[in-house]
Design goal:
Order of helices and strands: EHHEEEHEHEEE
Strand content: 25-35%
Helix content: 10-25%
Distance between the termini: 22 Å
Number of helices: 4
Number of strands: 8
Radius of gyration: 16 Å
Length: 184
């Protein structure tokens, strides 16, 4: 991983690159392909934040955040949430810190918009990403959404020394955010 990490919006110029991002074959049951994410972003432009992850000029992954959704879906907006909707790191690029960068970037965007919690869902099971998310400081909420485990990460505010998990230990995604540029 280099210091040239950045996010780029998906555009007509990089669309083919974005949909070419593929996770390892064993992970394909755990995360939707990028093309499905982009179709959902088209259907929900007010909530979706799709981004290509680049290391220098090299595409290494894709993320899509959800921003300010009515989690209950009942129109009351009693429970408005933001978080990580999709994370696809290319098979050859995994275990190099790109997933951690992606989560930090989403955390930074949520903080920028005034949020203090980052939600995520994941497929349960030994081969799923639970260890990755828990290792970053997410905690299980006890909820299940669409058969997936729901997790939440408390984000430290601008004045905090970093968010702390339920044991008081500072999480891995403190307020410093990613050390790379984020293009809107």
């Amino acid at each position: 991983m280099t210091e040239g990490l950045r996010l780029e919006p998906v555009t007509p110029d990089n669309f083919d690159t974005a949909i070419g991002i593929e996770v390892a074959p064993a992970q394909r049951r755990l995360v939707a392909p990028v093309v499905k994410s982009l179709a959902e972003a088209y259907l929900h432009p007010e909530h979706a934040w799709p981004r290509l992850i680049l290391d220098g000029d090299r595409p290494v992954g894709f993320l899509m955040a959800f921003l300010d959704i009515d989690w209950a879906g009942d129109g009351t907006r009693r429970d408005v949430r933001s978080g990580l909707w999709r994370l696809n790191i290319a098979e050859a690029e995994q275990r190099r810190g790109y997933g951690r960068f992606a989560v930090r970037a989403v955390a930074e965007e949520i903080r920028r918009r005034g949020g203090s919690l980052l939600h995520v869902t994941w497929e349960p099971g030994e081969d799923g990403p639970e260890g990755f998310y828990l290792g970053l400081g997410f905690r299980k909420t006890g909820e299940v959404s669409g058969g997936q485990t729901v997790g939440v990460l408390e984000l430290g505010g601008a004045g905090d020394a970093g968010a702390r998990n339920e044991t008081g230990v500072q999480n891995e995604l403190d307020h410093r955010g990613p050390s790379a540029s984020l293009r809107a």
